[in-house]
Structures are given as C-alpha cells and as structure tokens.
Design a protein that fits this description.
With about 180 residues, this protein is an alpha+beta fold. About 15% of the residues lie in helices and about 40% in strands. The protein has a six-stranded mixed β-sheet with strand order 8-1-2-11-10-9, with no helix packed on it. Strands 3-6-7-5-4 form a five-stranded mixed β-sheet. The chain is globular. The N and C termini lie far apart (about 70 Å).
Amino acid sequence: RKEAKVVETQQMVTFVLDKEEYASAIGDLREIIKMREVIPIPGAPAFIAGILNVRGQIVVVVNLEKRFALVREHPTTPLHIIIAEVEANVFGILVDEVTGVLRVPVTSIKPAPAMITSKIHADYLNGVIVLEGESSGTAPGDAKKLARLLLVLDIPRMLAEKELLQFGETIQETVKETTK
C-alpha cells in the first residue's frame, strides 16, 4: 500500500526589479495595480516615492531601488505597484513588472546564500526559490535545463520598520486633518 505524499505549497506573486526576479507570499499582499501618478511629498525620506489614492485610501509608495540602495543597470519605468497593509498602514511598492503567480512547493524555498543577502538586507529575505528551469536550446537535443532563482521578500517585515510606520501614520493623520 503506497501513501500519496502531500506536498505543501505556497502561492507566490513574482515580480522583477532591475532584471532580478523576486517573489512574495500572496497572503502578504492586498492587491496589484498598474502604475499611476504618484504625488511626491516634500521632505520625505528618499525611498518614499510619494503617495497615491487607491479607491479613497491614501497609500504611501516605497521605491525598493532607493530603499536598498540598488544601483540600476537597466533603467526602466515601473509598470506595477504592489499594495500591502502593515499595522493599519497601506503601502505601495514600485516594481518594474509583476510577472505572475506561482504555486511553489514549500520544500523548494531554500535559505538565501550570504552573497545574495548583501544586495538586499538579509532581514527582508525569506529565502530563495529554486525552480527547475525551462530549456534554453533552439534545436531539439541541445536543450539545457536552466534553474530559475527567485528571491523571496518578506514584504510585511520590510514595511514594518519603525521609520516607515511612523511616516505612514503621519500621512494618515495629515489626511484626516485636511479632510475634516
């Protein structure tokens, strides 16, 4: 009698930032919206792109590139904003493009190697997903298996930083004051 093994999976949203692929647990996100005008805020930290209105709610938009001091090799305009909620604050995260939703076996999420954690602070990484890849050959027979690596970002932990939460609360209070 053989027992079927149940492989626990997790749904992940995948996105690209400067040609690097990232993933985040779908449960950590509220929604994904197409890029729209973000209103800059004078005096805000450099990694705050500004604010935008999403169905009557003010969202503080974070620029990950500036947040992690990434030096961009391929300049591009962000196509999507990932919306997440942390402690009653709603944040948007600029990403080059949301590429899809994957269901990955929990066993394929590995600890992030130290080399990777230097680019993005290790505290914000939940690991690396290694997906056995698509073939890269053009003619049948010279197909090479390529592994696809996705860095798993812990978006709630990243957005729960004291500085960000205080900024989010200040924005919410300002909005309440101006709408009285």
